[in-house]
Amino acid sequence: MQASIDKARLFYTTRPESRSSPGGQRGDKAILPPFASLAFAAALASLDVETVFVPRGEADGQCVVIAAEMGGYVLGLDSDFVILGSAADMKGYIPFDMVEWIEPTTTHEAVGDGFTTTSAKKVRVRSVSRLLPRSSGATLILPIYTSEALARRLRLPLNMLPLLAALLGNDYTSSSDTNYTLDRVDRVARTLRETVARPGSHNADTAYELVSRVVRKLHAQAYVDERKLAEKVDGAIDATIQYVLPSPQCCSLYPFCSRLSEGCTTRAWRLPTALRSEASASVVEAYAAARATGHLDIMTRAWLHPGRVYLRDALENPAGPSARAGRISINARRATYAIVDAALGMRWPAKGAQNDEALERTETAQLMAGLSLQPSADDADTVENGEKSQDEAETVGNGEKPQSEAGTVEDKSALDDAEDGTQEAAVRRVVTEYLRQGSSARVGSQQIELPAPGDSTSLLAPLDERLAAFRDALDAPASVSSLPVDAQPLACALRMCILSAAETDPGGHQGRRWRRSEVEAVVRAALGCMKGWDDDLDDDVDAEELYPLLETRNAELVAQLSAALLDTLTLAQALLLTDGAHITPYVYVSGTALHSLLSGAEPPAACGWRRSRAWEQELEDIVAAVLDGAEEALGVAHAPKKKKKKQRAEAPAPAKGGRFDMLLDEMI
């Protein structure tokens, strides 16, 4: 999060001419649009490409599982795939940056006199390192790396590659000094090989003892601090667990699982606090279906960790206040969290700790199995307790009463009373968010307390009722409801921008308030992009046309709009207003169109923006709905003050007289 704030600071401190050029958006300076991932998922769905979305962490393990099921390869830019492939039967890993197309060599036929055109020997074959070929006759060259080849090269068992990668720090090792890196790999592999080869290392040792021996041998200092050694061993074990492939069984994060099995799609008992009724089960399944199509991305992180929600940054100027810290924005997210809590039950810290403990027991068992180690007595008890708690969860989810140690069925009312008392004492329904504080680059926290549980809009209600709940949560006037459904999120987001900017600029002297011309420009840009979203674009266009001048004020306005659209999107996801019933905000956003129209220029057609006189009435209706009751929050565009020219003092004019007056004072 701090890295994105630093990028924003660099962006706003760079001259507009420099940051507007194509070279200003390369390498570490590149800034992705706020809805790039959603647009990418929609593009894949339109091409009937199967997609999988993981609830937390990286999707590397899921990619390996899918590749093994299909009997294919993994293409990427992460060396972790070589390690993850040790536990799956995939064919290999292919780095993106090493894919090459070899252009065909030109051959010349003999002419009538028997002579042929020849070329010099040892001509370098032209290769192109890119994914798409430039000609139809090019030859594809794919370097393939396999876990088996790496294990043979290092003379290690295949199941020890995850531990090797954890000890080396695979994701954090610099590739600048190749010789030093190879020496480290050989040294760690030799130490691990010698430790594994000891008699009884596979039967009696636990995972902790094995890792502890390796770390102790690799320790460079003669004196070993046991406390620091234990920290390093724990860190190595945690890093090794990251290489455990996801289980094919139904995960405990339903309905936000990465891949839903048959049991997950029909049973809701995985939820920690779900009501066991047909209505709640239907809601949970609706959330699962929406998640499988790529929605609920923002809501998933809030449900998983309500005590640690990092808000997305929208390229705001660090010198100004955060748009997502305003009252209207907070109220929108409070309504979102309340809806999710009523439908699914948020994983509050007390419940999340229990879930994390169960997950840790499961991961420990998976690590032991992955390293082919026999669990010790303590580990066996841990695994057994994890399986027992899982069985009890399934029993309660099926509507059955849990059994005590003696095998008798406990009284349900007593259990419910004890559970309610514990939850009331331990659980606070407060969501902790982390965002930029004030007019600085410092990241701080703020707490949002949810309202008391009450009557909320049913997520199985008709579309009109859910749209009404969407507008009510955003304090939208009645005029917004008369707009087309695909224009309502835009109108609500713009109203949030106007009112929030007025709250941070009560006197109207700081220039943060929106102007009517800017509101009309944003509506015209968003409406033109939405209407032309499905049109084909002309690829043969000068790239310079797609890079308008990024003025500081225009960039700040676009950042405010992006932040407001993020809040409206999260609320729409909570109300299950997906693509079939709503619209995703990325269809509004075209940086070229927004910055061009805010600067008073016509956007190029290559950016996807369209214009038609038939849309003028719709544009006027949207602007009128946006400004309904918000006219006083607008600012006035002041013309630049002209400096008055300083009037130079003129010399006094000589008095009029005769031609010989100058001689009157002369002495004769």
Automatic annotation (TrEMBL):
Parts forming coiled coils: none
Query: Which region ranges are annotated with the description Disordered?
Result: 374-423, 637-656
Q: Which InterPro entries match?
A: Asteroid, Asteroid_dom
Question: Where's the Asteroid domain?
Answer: 51-132
Record protein name field:
Asteroid domain-containing protein
Protein's organism: Cutaneotrichosporon oleaginosum
Q: What is the taxonomic lineage of the source species? A: Eukaryota, Fungi, Dikarya, Basidiomycota, Agaricomycotina
